[in-house]
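Example record used in the benchmark description.
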Amino acid sequence: MTTKYITVDVSPSGGGTVEIDGDAPPEYPYDFPVTSGTTIRIEAIPENGYHFVEWVGEPTVKSNPDFEPVIRNMSVIALFAPDPDAVEFTSSDGMISVTIPYGVTALDGEGNPLTEVEFAAIKRAPDPPEEYSVIGLPYQLKPAGTTFDRPVMLTWRYDTGDIPEGITEEELIITRCDNFDVGLPELDFEVDAKKDTIRAYIDHFSCFTVLALAASSPDSPATPSLPVSPVTPVAFTSSSLSVSPPEVSPGTTVTISALLTNPGEADGSDTVTLKLNGVVAETREVSLAAEAFQMVAFTTSQSAAGTYAVEVNGLLGSFTVNEGASSAVAAVPASPAGSDRWPTIAVIIAIAAAISIPLGIRWWRRRSDLGSLGDYISMR
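Model output (structure tokens):
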């Protein structure tokens, strides 16, 4: 069997890693040796504060992760984008954090925008149901009455030494501890045993705690099964709003796009709404698989001059219609490392079109005299 090489790179540097069959390279770019005829698993893993955008280079690598049969040498680049719009609040002991994505409306109990979060450890918390024990300390998140218009992520780091013997990490449960008398409130959550964390999605502040079934002796009756929070779709997140071009003449088409992401563990659907000057212009139902993303694009054209406010699921932008002015070319962000060839290719295509179209027209006009395009060119 021959050896082929998969050349992997990332952009920007530090935005994430690329793993081949679970192995990450020590540096980038890097050549992975792979036996020809085998199938590899390639996955882009973003660092904290970044998200994966797309693969560039090898056209057959599209999804993430992807399974790729290797029959030749390949080269692929993972593009990542920063998440500057996500706001994270972390407790002083580093045990708990709340991540609020851009576009989520977060209001404190008085209806003001949320600017700070207090994580208060509760030493004398309400007792959980008999069959459960508390892992670590419960926390009260403040300001009291804080709400979110879409679920945000609560990340809880637990100490494995606090878990009772005979209980696995996957059996842990995170819940609110404000009203144990009526049972355990269910939250959409997931346990990451590798990182000793539990991530839950919450829509308001309360008292939260991590519980485990109390270990039972061999002679005691069977312990009731641990209720498992059902995996339900969470609200999609929207980011990376683009309005292009930002200035146009009357009647010129403007493209408005945003990146829609399903951060949950289940397939789901959500509505994307485009508003112009506060008025709903178009709505679209989008279905996404778990942890998938999709760029959603709208188009509009306006005949009246003026500036138009754009809103897509809370993301704000604008474009201007200039009376009698020609369309301005939208500023394009600098291409990431490793993709500079695309602008060059676009320029070459444009130049080729500018030359070939006039030649074609002139050939048709003189066809009767010159007989063929080849004859015409040879005469030139």
